[in-house]
Amino acid sequence: MMLSLYNLIVHFAGFLLKIMALFSPKMKLFVDGRKVVFPVLEQKIKATDKTIWFHAASLGEYEQGLPVIEKIKDKFPSHKIVVTFFSPSGYEVRKNNTVADVTVYLPLDTKKNAQQFLQLVHPDLVFFIKYEYWPNYLAELKKSNTKTYLISGILRPNQLFFKWYGGFYRNALDAFTYFFVQNETSKKLLQQLGKTNVAVSGDTRFDRVATILEKDNSLDFIFDFKDNKLTIVVGSSWPKDEDLVVNFINSNTFDVKFIIAPHNIKDEQIQQLKNSITKKTILFSQKEGKQLADFNVFIIDTIGILTKIYSYADIAYVGGGFGNPGVHNVLEPATFGVPILIGPNYSHFAEAIALVNMEACVSVNNQKELNEALENLIQNDDIRNEKGHMCSTFVQMNKGATAIILKHILND
């Protein structure tokens, strides 16, 4: 009964999304991108190909699963890697990735779509990253006895599995060969449902950010701008974050540099941000031919280089903590040994909670607290270095999830 209702809702949602696509560019990407999935699969995957399928909801989950994707690709060189995304914010950014042989949107979770998708992909192994449990896809995977894994899984008591009316959703979990979860809470919740095929492997994101240190993170223009001065990097900021940071920039008298990489890089918002700053400010898009060392503030109006920029930070402010669902990725600055400031909304992110509890990361609620925290870190080298060291140690101590997952799968 509930499954029939779910299928009805999915079909209705598909119809609704087509209408929304007429008015929303993001929804248009969502709808139009799915129109070409089956033709692309027919073109790129032959019946004789061996494949492995990874599904990520969005960009964060893709980055989280990347260490496993790369290792699986090494271990199964004769297989084609298929990566699917649910969200345009993941697909549009990573559609040209080099690790996958085929990258497409995941068609909506109807029985017909699931059957057609799996017939074309015919995977030997399937990995769902962190969450997203699509009942029709999972039902078809169970029917075909395909080995299916959840990696870096996280479960919470308020999920549908644990509601009295969530029986059809609980049944979908029967498709999983094994659950690799991030923490003991998730393991216990699965055990309450009678699942014994579960291990706490940790979060593969730690493996992902740990490998960043092995890459070339140099950016000549950031080096020139920094000019050997203490530098505060504001990453993935939203307007509320920027209001507080800009007030500090405009009022402080310290000889420090600021780099701001906003979450939204629309021209209007970038110009508004620049106009609100009273100190000498340069945009990434206008940097050519400029003496960057002469500027106090550098606004990054492009995407894809924030991780490398964090390697130049002495202090990092990670945005998103004044909105929902909350703060962005704190692990990227942490891996470089940078002390971190965030807003108050971080309760959904275990790594942020841990870093705050360790006092390696400082959560601020208002302008006064931000000013005090920044002044403390700017003026006290020992405190700044100690918090930064705790951040890098935290990342190093928690890596290893990929190795646990690979060992089990290769012995399975």
Roughly how many Å is the radius of gyration? 23 Å
Please identify which CATH superfamily of the largest domain we are dealing with: 3-Deoxy-D-manno-octulosonic-acid transferase, N-terminal domain
Top-tier CATH class of the largest domain:
Alpha Beta
How large is the count of helical segments?
Answer: 19
Question: Biggest β-sheet: count, sense, barrel?
Answer: 7 strands, parallel
Total domain modules: 2
Strand content: 15-25%
List the strand order in the largest sheet.
3-2-1-4-5-6-7
Write the CATH fold name of the largest domain: Rossmann fold
CATH architecture title of the largest domain: 3-Layer(aba) Sandwich
Mean pLDDT comes to 95
Structural class assignment: alpha/beta
Number of strands: 14
Low-confidence regions: none
Structure overview:
This protein is an alpha/beta fold. Helix content is 47%, strand content 17%. The protein has 19 helices and 14 strands. It has helices at residues 2-20, 25-35, 37-44, 59-75, 88-94, 111-121, 135-143, 167-172, 184-192, 204-212, 220-226, 239-251, 267-275, 306-310, 331-335, 350-357, 367-379, 381-398, 401-411, and strands spanning 50-56, 79-85, 102-105, 123-129, 147-153, 178-181, 198-200, 231-237, 257-262, 281-283, 297-299, 315-318, 340-342, 361-363. It has a seven-stranded parallel sheet, sandwiched between helices. A seven-stranded parallel sheet has the order 10-11-9-8-12-13-14. α15 links the parallel β12 and β13 (340-342). The longest helix has 19 residues, at 2-20.
